[in-house]
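Need tokens for this chain, all 254 residues.
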Amino acid sequence: MKSKLIWTVCLSALLLSCGSGETKKTEDSRPEQTESTASASTEEPKEVQNKTKLGIDVSHFQGDINWEEIKEAGILFAYDKATQGETYVDPDFKENQVGAKNAGLVHGSYHFFMSNDDPLSQAKLFVSNAGYEKGDLPPVLDLESGGIKGDISAADFEKNVLIWLEHVESQLGVKPIVYTNHSFGDQYLSDAKLAEYHLWVAEYGVEKPKVPKVWAEKGWLIWQRSERGAVEGAVGQVDHDLYNPDKAAIVKFE
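Here are the structure tokens for all 254 residues:
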């Protein structure tokens, strides 16, 4: 068994928007953000704390994860990388999926989209590996600059994105969520059909995230507001996510 390095951090630190400015490795890089550390009180009003739903997203980069300690740290949900492109399956996906669920976290799976791979083949790979069950978080399609390979027009890119989204929805019976940031979204995602899917937006070191124009009226469902921070129970650093307290009816955490 691998040794586990335990990162200790107060739950209150998760309530701060503290970005490290570091990006993930090429195969799963997150949107580029400005390095920033927000200053805020370490304690929020109780009514805010009661509505706050904190989560993390992980892949094999985090190594072994002690999910019981993740749960004890106040984390309620976790997204776990399942697949990438046409052929890649994250080697730690199933272990993280089982571990998170056994610890009582609400679990979801995501696919890292590659522009140079066939979108239907990517969708089929995800469906065959995600192991989606009733009560899981909706599947997520991760769209970012690290997935753009070669030349592709915005029109062709979003056409392929919709192929993935529609196939996964038809097979799993649930609408996926789109993960992106405002600059990438505004460059590549303009089809009004995309607004039918909820948004997971990434932006660090700010009090309020900007959303791509397509989601201007709908707003965000999940906000990845801190990149690669420490959390007790995780080996290495993880992304910190906030579920929109104004959309509590969409996903049940209890």
